[in-house]
Amino acid sequence: MDGSGGRYIGAIPGRRPPAAGRDGDDASRSAHLFVVSLPLVRKLLTLCCLALVGCGGSGTGGVVRFGAAGPWNEAYGAMNRRGVELAYDEIKARADYAKHPFEISWQNDQADGQKATAIATDFVADPSVVAVIGHVNSGTEVAAAPVYNAGHLVSVATTATSPALTGISPWVFRVISSDSMNGLHMAQFAGARLGKHRAAVLYENNAYGRGLADAFRRNFSGAVVAFDPIAEGAQNFEPYVSYLKTLNPDLVFVAGTDASGASFLREFRRQKLTATLLGGDGWTSLSVDTTLAEGIYVGAPFSAENPDAEVQKFVQDFRAKYHLTPDGNAALAYDATNLLYDALTRVGPDRAKIRDFLAGLTPQTAWKGVTGNIYFGASGDPVGKSVVMTRLHDGALQVVEGTP
């Protein structure tokens, strides 16, 4: 007990914690600390019992399912879901699907940590669920990770980028790079490529926003003249933008998602600020508003401009089905679904074997997806992945630096 009214401090063994400097973690610790409530402790004890009686063989002899969890009502969540749906449709059309059929259990976590924990508990308790696609957000994945760890169920996060996820559990993987890497890349781009010297930083006050903003601040070569939290979702940005005008930054970096981003851009355009705008991967969905978002820079995990034949097939198939151009949300969810299905076909509907398959990927056996080759370090993070720097023009993310 930590003396905070019935909260329990525990540790997830089996993974090294992140290096010092990431959310205050100390690399000398032997375990990654997390805080959970007492009711959750009771659930975790139940899940441990499930693991001891053989959760590893789940799915055999009956219906096999992948769980899928995300905020489907949000624009970025909807793009994630479309990526999963397209992959699932294509898988069902394959000849080997008859030998390895599966269903998807869709759950809306509404980007809420408590809901994510409850959904994860249900997934773990359902023996037909052999792996989970998601969660989408950093905060929900961090919240659900102890449940997946205790229940021995693989979770492959699609767009969760918080450094807090690095090494959080041997059962948690992600197909997108950490914000420690993304923030570094974007800060270097802003200083060296764009030649900016005075940056104002706004960040959503959640695991994603804090992690990305902190990484940018630590690596930006110029002066950070403002570093302010904002709320999630649509809001009034008049006070923020008015304040930024008094500071006269030459760059505004925003670590947030599309809903807050759209509100900010409307006020930014209304007050006619001239600073260059740069956003993280949470801004990729803003490309749908060709006027509002014209000219902004985005550090994106995927570009539809990539000339690779498999990437272009994905782009064309996605456009044919949804009449939209896929963004990084859709592409990463598409890859996560196909990756897990490949594991299912190779090792069968066994939770432990699926985990071992993912952990055992190497540079030589890396799984090739539309977002690049995928294999994982001991921390569960993908190796060798980062963002490509893009600029929005006519509704498209055009690559300005990096490999599309």
Task: Describe the protein in words.
With 404 residues, this protein is an alpha/beta fold. The protein folds into two domains: 7-176 and 315-374, Rossmann fold (3-Layer(aba) Sandwich); 180-300, Response regulator (Rossmann fold). Helices cover 38% and strands 20% of the residues. It contains eleven helices and 16 strands. The strands form four sheets. The protein has a seven-stranded mixed beta sheet with strand order 9-8-10-11-12-15-16. A five-stranded parallel beta sheet has the order 4-3-5-6-7, with helices on both faces. The chain has a two-stranded antiparallel sheet with strand order 1-2. Helix 4 links the parallel strand 5 (129-133) and strand 6 (155-157). Helix 1 packs across helix 4 (138-151), helix 2 (75-92) packs parallel to helix 10 and helix 3 runs parallel beside helix 4. The longest helix is centred in the C-terminal third of the chain and has 20 residues, at 328-347. The radius of gyration is 21 Å and the shape is globular. The termini are far apart.
